[in-house]
Amino acid sequence: MKFGNTSDYIAFNSYGGFSKNKDEYHILNTNTPLPWCNVMANKNFGTIISSYGTVYTYYINSREYKITDWCNDWIEFKPGESFKGIFEKDYNLIYGFGYTRVLEEYDYIKKSMDIFIPKDDDVKIQFITLENTYGEEKSLNIEYKLVPTLGVAQETNISYILSKEENDTMILKNPYSVDFSDCQAFEFVCKDKDNNNISYNFDIDTYTLKVQINIKPNTKEQFAIILGACTQKNSVYITNMKSKYSDINSILKEYSDTKKYWKNLVIPKNKINTGDEYIDIMANGWLLYQTIVCRLYAKSGFYQSGGAIGFRDQLQDTLSLISSSPDFTRNQIILNSSKQFEKGDVLHWWHEHNSAGIRTYFSDDYLWLPYVLSEYIDKTKDYSILDVKTKYLEDKHMGNKRELYDIFNNIDLEDSVYNHAKKAITYGISRKNQSNGLLDIGDGDWNDGFSNIRGQSVWLTFFMMNVLDRFLDIAKYMKDTEMVELCKKERHLLKHSIIDNCWNNDHFVRAYFENGEVLGAYSNKECKIDLISQSWAVIAMIKDKDVKNELLTCMDIAYKYLVDKENMIVKLLYPPFDKPKNNPGYIKAYVPGIRENGGQYTHAATWFAKAYFELKNKEKGIEILKYINPIYHSDTKEKADKYMVEPYVVAADIYSNSDHPGRGGWTWYTGSSSWMYKVIEDYLK
Fold this sequence. Notes:
By secondary structure, this protein is of the alpha+beta class.
């Protein structure tokens, strides 16, 4: 089955293309180089569909309570859910905001399945329409089989899963789950009550639903398979869902409402028009959809099923939503402030359902609180957030450990959001090295892979300078004279520490090892230059006229060594680590040219574009945005076969490795989507 003339699509690449209205991606050939996915979710429930089949479905936490088995092996793809009779072979796909359509035709029967997650219900609706175009009655069997997990991994939970059929519903439980023993998954069929052409039964032993359909000539039959979950304490939930979705019309209404919800949420009310069609496609829906559905709701993708909230990650994700949906940002700031210890450090990440998280020596996490807070206030003028009070976390000491995973509960001591942000800054300043005036890197800064440097971070010092600049206005509003003076003084001292210690002929170095040796200088055989030191030098010092020449020079050098025009990538550093003299950390475990180790790390590339826009160099800023944009990597078959991953979502990384130059890496679950939108909105809208 085909959708029509391929000229009807934008950026068609033989696998698929964008619809003319640009809010759908149509896949005509599902033999894509890698699985091309769509993520659909609400705050508690979600699923991932791929061109290879359904990946999996989860409830509450995408890592900790997978309803069905998560498969991210594209070589031997074994999905957690599978069909027979539909979504099996020779199908086409339509991906939209909040929905997926499966379309196929066989033996005079047109088949479609619309898959969506209602915005308020913890269910996945798979709405099936079968149309008989033949002059005689047709019969069809459809099977829907689950590979249940009800926990983290199928192999460790399958022996504990209990199943039963009750009131035409299959119910699955895992009573031995540590955190989710009270949860149950359920599955039922929705069809019009007076429709006798559809019958079904459950095979409990194989977790399979079998549906038999008779279709009269030139007519159609419709029904829905609904998979959901709830707590046993709320067992009436199943009854409520069966009542709510008791007929086809109720499903169609919910489907329409879901589409409207997502379009209103992710498409800017005043559409962005940059003059570049591909940038505009991404900015008018796809970037914000990726950010909200994947980063803020699902916290999962084909390449990672995380489930946790990262302190710096989800804060940065909400930066792109300040203008359109400021409540996302406000709520994230308040939540994150409650994940701070009295000392000023914070949890690196945590699971919200059980308060389990990890305390570390990462050196930038806590500074994203004042950064995002200042941006939020600058854009919204909502100063009331500063007075909101949240509690601190109990202080569990790490001892001689470099990180501590534990359950961290809040204590009775509380403070205002303003004081939480202020404490983050003062704690960061307290970690200043006395010998060179730079901030200690701890067990890594923004680049987690620098886990063994244990010296000082030049990027972090630039970042702190920018945070101090931003927080100065908030301190003035609060009439906090002491903090106003601290911001001015420390910013001045940090700048001079940078000038005195970090300029290397024509660019800024990246860090200092614990033994005092430099990283990111020409004296290094590997990592002679790093992208984010140059980008944040501009972002942090754009108003400092005395370093104007240095800023222009360091950006020119970064462009020279880090921008690969042929493969349309912006490398994070050059040359990559292979056999370094000093061990920088786990970054060297990556093959040279892969991910942080000298590949494009798209998050950082967005900052490079931002720096160009700060310098009023719009031409270069747009050029970098084009290299980040997945459509430019996939608008022909040749490009798509090289890039391999989805054309409609931003990839976390792109390889510079000589064996796979220009190949996309991790997609969907990346903060790059938020930063790309933020840069476009701030400088091109």
